[in-house]
Request: fold
Amino acid sequence: MSNEHTVKSYEEELQFLIDSVIKMGSLTESQMVDSMDAVIKVDKDSIDKIIKSDEEINKFRSKIDTQIMTLLVKRAPMAIDLRETISSLKISQDLERIGDLSKSNAKKVKPLPLDLPEELLANLKRLGDLVIKQLNDVLDSYVNKNYNKAKEVWEKDEQVDDLTYIAMESVINFLSKDKKNLDFSTHLIFATKNLERAGDHITNIAETICFLIKGEYLKGNRPKGKVIQE
Amino acid sequence: MTKEERLKKRHNSEKRFRFYGLASIFVALLFVLILVNNIFSKGSSAFMKTAINVEVFFDPELLEVKNGSTLDEIQEADFYDVTIETILKSYPAKNLDEENELIDLFTTDAEIEIKNAFIKNNNLVGKKINLEITASDDIDQLHKGNYPRDLPEDRRRISNFQLKIYDNFVADDKIIKNFNNYFFSNGDSRNPELAGIGGALVGSFYSILICLLLSFPVAVLASIYLEEFAPKNKITDFIEININNLAAVPSIVYGLLALQILLATIQLPRSTPLVAGITLALMTLPRIIIPCRASLKAVPPSIREGALAVGASKFQSVFHHVVPLALPGTLSGTIIGLAQALGETAPLILIGMVAFVVDIPATPIDPSASLPVQVYLWSESAERGFVEKTSATIMMLLSFLIVMNFVAVYLRQKFEKRWN
Amino acid sequence: MSDIKIKSKNLNVYYGDKQALFDVNLDLNEKEVTALIGPSGCGKSTFIRCINRMNDVIDICKVEGNIEIDGIEINDKELDVVSLRERVGMVFQKPNPFPKSIYDNISYGPKIHGKGETKNELDEIVERSLKKAALWEEVKDRLDEPGTGLSGGQQQRLCIARAISVNPEVILMDEPCSALDPIATAKIEELIDELKKTYTIVIVTHSMAQAVRVSQKTGFFHLGKLIEVGLTEKIFKNPDNKMTQDYITGRFG
Reply:
């Protein structure tokens, strides 16, 4: 009994789908790194590059959609193959949203001043680094089908919430210090929120991967840290 | 050899094969035609008989009966004198020899024919009628052109005087041919003009009937048992081999069997359709069992399973479903077996059907002949008149066989259409 | 939770020296459809043929173990097989209507079981069975025509009607759609959906998709052993046994 599909093309199609998701994840990850860099360094030159890379990510999304429909109609996948197919659909959706959020953050760099307080930037960086690490970990767990790693990512969302809270406080402090900070402070607030939402999407991906591997959903609510009232 | 050459060679060998096939069919048909022509040309004349038109006077002085006498009285009465008078009046004969020769021109049953004419029309006393009396066998053959006329008198069966009378009658239109009803209504006879297959027909009919009644149920039930119910082991294999062999046993062996067991031991009456029927039944049994078993085997197991699944017992599934489907094959096998039995001669000769039987058998235990045996008997006879009768009987036999085979084909097609 | 209608315990079946089923323990629930899947020659057909003792027809087949229907042991030599088959009907892979008229096909079963004495009773049974098999409208005007003159899908529905005519409790189906086109197959699957309200159905199928569509419970057989049995949804979304998963995803070598 081999572990490959009897029909070779089925095996290839499924593998192609998984590879597409991995590639899309890579792109999303590097886009997020670039976007975070741009925000921290207030680098206005890299904005266009980041916007362009988002187009690449969207192209992947439609390629994956097409591939999924073909697989469903041709192969009527069962059990693990079914979960693999549905998971790649959900993961690609989440990745696309993360890409959009990174793009949105990059756009927000334009109006920012070059003399933002150190502490504020540091807090933002810590949050951004965590989210990037989460994304990296979750993509790893997808490639290696590592259940425990995915579960850890899911549990670490609590930390993301905490760091968001801290970063948000810095921004609000900065905002309240000087009225003229209002304009770009609001941008910063949105940027912080975007990072939190990216974290949520990453947690979604983690949940999907757990379901993919075990065939059942994670029990219980996802851990929540401190939350700023919205 | 190139590809084209190989292809051409294959096409050519196929064309040759087709040609051989058609040629063989053609040759076979040719032989059939020759055979049929031979039999027909010899036998068709047997269906007509020659008669001489004479005036019969029912002289009341020569007759004991009156108008209105009962049938029994007429049958008992003597019409001999009237007959002789009629014959002698038909042509002038000068002396006793000539008179005898004149009388010989007519059938020996002339008296019976005149009596029958009288019975038909019961108030003929004192009246004259014209009657066509059957001619003797010699005149019959002469008129049919089978006797050469240019031989010296002592080498002829007909004397010069008789020839003169004959020519005279022909000139006067007194010689006619009418349908030979004697051929069908009479039994065997020493006189060819009176001989018929009536006895043999009835004998064959009874024999085949008894054969059918005995062999068909036994054969079919045996086949069903062997095919559907018997366990498959060495014993049943042995039985199957033996049945197949029995079908190939020469029929004369069955005759010997019948001679020893039916006639010598059980002492059934010889020469009867009963014994013939039993003998033929023994012979036909394996010939019915083999196609019946083949038909049963041919019924697909899905039919049996379908019946069993609905809750039929094994018996019900066999008799309600399998047997009806096997019926076409069984029937055609039976009819072919019967047709073969109809034509059997050797065993019937051994059980004594070579006896000279004149009367038509009334029951199956009366002695009789059968059609093929009759052919055998007549073919041995010296008289010319029996030649055409032999061929005519063969024609009858062949027609029965052809009809039976057509019935087999028809029944098979009819049943197959219904079930499929 | 349905009651258990058929229970097999330590069922072993031999064809001569060759063993076809090994210690099969399987419960089938009442008024439910149970699908049996597995590669060719794995014993699924052998198993269902044990339930109506059709294996008795094969001389070299030996059945050991227990099968109970409603608590009554059916592998008993004393059991009347004919009345068993009245309670357990069967539909075969290739439609096999009797070479008789449509009417006679349906009325045969009730007649031999004494379920219809008068013509009116038989007429009623025939109409009822054909209606239940969703065939009545198509053949009501030609009941005298031979059953073999119908199309493949109609013939199979005729066989289903025939099985229903004796009012069974269980219907066994051995790959009933494998010889039919997709539309005929869909009609039969629709029929099975309806029939399960009244009868317990066991269906052997080679089509995974069909098993998912029609059954509530599925059993996976391989080389004569029952590898896994459970709710159909579970088997096809997330089976416990790797062999089951390999089979249903097409990873068998």
In short: Chain B touches chain C at residues 232, 302-313, 316, 320-321, 324-325, 418-420 (CB under 8 Å). Chain B has two domains: 49-178, 198-419. The longest helix of chain B spans residues 3-43. The two ends of chain B are 49 Å apart (CA to CA).
